[in-house]
Structures are given as structure tokens and as C-alpha cells.
Design brief:
alpha+beta, 222 residues, globular, five-stranded mixed β-sheet, three-stranded antiparallel β-sheet, single chain, 2 domains, 6 helices, 32% helix
Length: 222
């Protein structure tokens, strides 16, 4: 187990003890189409076609939590200072991911050997984000997960999810460690920016320019 995980568990116990919370560990479990004992076997049964390998929303579970108070409110616990949350950090990896033990390579391990290499797997992950079902459901999955709890307890105290920004990314190692160059479709989060009216307008203009793939004079100067 990584030291990062061990220290994270220690911090979770500390917060629960201090706040009088119960231990309540829940992670999202998305039900996928296809046939098999695990998600990789299901996608292989569909010919590894990302358009056919899609979530069954009504049978999926989206709750994500580390603790519960006496009133039943749920919370996530992240060992970050607020100053660390002005850039995106790992929140959840609810979509299929590969992380086998090296001792299982080449032995028919379902989480490795059904893809010949990382390149084939990474292409599959990228194609998921271009499917019709992704365009229809990605926001639903995202919101169902982060709104399943009241927010995050950081090292500086509680942060409600209304003060946080969440989005999907393909993590290539820049947001959190990945296994052997296998990319992960990941939810990341950060503190929302407190923008002036001028900066809000600038940000909106940049969003429109990016959406229509227009290069502004400002970007050219940069």
C-alpha cells in the first residue's frame, strides 16, 4: 500500500474522532452493460466497443463518502490544505481502470491481458469520451457522485461542495499516479475561483472561443 494511502487513512480516523462521525465508507459502483464477472469481461463480451459498453444508470450506485454524522449527513475526507486546492486534485475514478499486480501479467488476468498494451487501452478510454452515451450521461454521473455527500473535510476544516468545482479529465499521470502509463478517466476537483466581474467576462469569452476553436488576439500574444 502506498504511503499516501496510509497517511490518508490516518487523517480520516482523526477527522472522524474529532467530529464525532461514524466510519461510513462508500465508493461509486457503476453497473455496465455486457456479460461477465467483472467490468473488463463485460466490455470484452461487447467486442471492446465503447459505444456498446455503457452504464446502466438505474442500477448504478453513486454514493461517495468517508464519514457520516448522527443526522445521516455524509462527508468526504481529503488530506489537503485549502492552499493546495487552487489547482485540480484527484476526487474519484469511478470508470473502469487497469491496475494489476505485475505478478499477474501474461497469466490471463482480466484487468490486464484483455488489452495487448497501454496504447490499445488508452485509445479505448479516449473513445469512451466521444460516445453518444458519454455525452448524455457524463454530467449525470459526475453530479450524482459529488452531490451524494455534503462536501469535503480538509486539513483546514469543512468545504461544502457548492464551493468546489468538479470536472472529468483523462488522467495521464499529471493529477495522480497511474499504473504503467494506463490512462484513467477521472473526476478532479478544486476550489472555485472568486472572480471579479471583469475576470468573469474574460473567462466566459475564452470559453466561447475555445468551444468554437477560435484563436483570440490575446492568445496569440501569449
Amino acid at each position: 500500500m502506498q504511503l499516501r494511502a496510509v497517511t490518508g487513512y490516518s487523517f480520516e480516523r482523526e477527522v472522524r474522532s474529532r467530529e464525532g462521525f461514524d466510519r461510513y465508507i462508500k465508493a461509486p459502483r457503476i453497473k455496465w452493460s455486457g456479460v461477465g464477472r467483472n467490468n473488463v469481461e463485460r466490455l470484452v463480451s461487447l467486442g471492446k466497443n465503447p459505444e456498446l459498453f455503457k452504464p446502466i444508470i438505474e442500477e448504478s450506485k453513486f454514493t461517495k463518502a468517508d464519514a457520516r454524522d448522527k443526522d445521516g449527513n455524509l462527508f468526504e475526507i481529503k488530506k489537503y490544505f485549502k492552499k493546495d486546492l487552487y489547482k485540480f486534485r484527484l476526487y474519484s475514478e469511478p470508470i473502469i481502470k487497469v491496475s494489476p499486480r505485475r505478478s499477474n501479467w501474461g497469466k490471463g488476468d482480466p484487468f490486464y491481458d484483455n488489452f495487448k498494451d497501454a496504447e490499445e487501452y488508452n485509445k479505448f478510454i479516449y473513445k469512451i469520451t466521444k460516445t453518444k452515451w458519454w455525452k448524455k450521461y457524463n454530467k449525470t454521473i459526475l453530479e450524482n457522485i459529488y452531490k451524494s455527500n455534503n462536501g469535503i473535510f480538509s486539513r483546514d476544516g469543512f468545504i461544502p461542495y457548492s464551493e468546489l468545482e468538479f470536472k472529468w479529465v483523462i488522467n495521464k499521470g499529471e493529477y495522480a499516479p497511474i499504473f504503467d502509463n494506463y490512462h484513467r478517466l477521472t473526476i478532479v476537483f478544486k476550489l472555485k475561483e472568486k472572480l471579479t466581474i471583469k475576470n468573469k467576462i474574460i473567462k466566459f469569452v475564452h470559453h466561447i472561443l475555445d468551444k468554437f476553436n477560435i484563436v483570440s488576439k490575446f492568445n496569440k500574444k501569449r
